[in-house]
Amino acid sequence: MCTTLKVLQHLILCCDLCGEALVPYYRQLLPTFNIFKFKNGASFLFHSTAVYSLWFALQRVFILAANLGDGIEYSQQQRENLGDLINETLELLERHGGEDAFINIKYMIPTYESCLLN
């Protein structure tokens, strides 16, 4: 998914009209962004479905951020942090999507805050 987001960002930036051309496809793209928007923590592998379902339920209740202490989060350097990539992509979509981009993004992702307003 990270690779897809990077390609989408490159597509938006490659020409001036690409961002506006993607506006009709927001209804297909943005629900997936909304699901993974807060996936900023480290990836976890679960072998038990019970543990996985409990973890998934806890993530729905609390927005979890990984506390690494004095550790290094390498996904940030390699641009593989899914939540950050989604936020970057949403900001690009808003900047290059024309007048109605923010309204459409806000409709599909209610927690999104504009990067242009204020």
UniProtKB/TrEMBL annotation:
InterPro entries hit by this protein? Parkin_co-regulated_protein (IPR019399)
- Say which domain of life the source belongs to: Eukaryota
GO MF term set: Hsp70 protein binding; Hsp90 protein binding
A matching Pfam family? ParcG
Extract the PANTHER family matched here: PARKIN COREGULATED GENE PROTEIN, PARKIN COREGULATED GENE PROTEIN PARK2 COREGULATED
Q: What is this protein called?
A: Uncharacterized protein
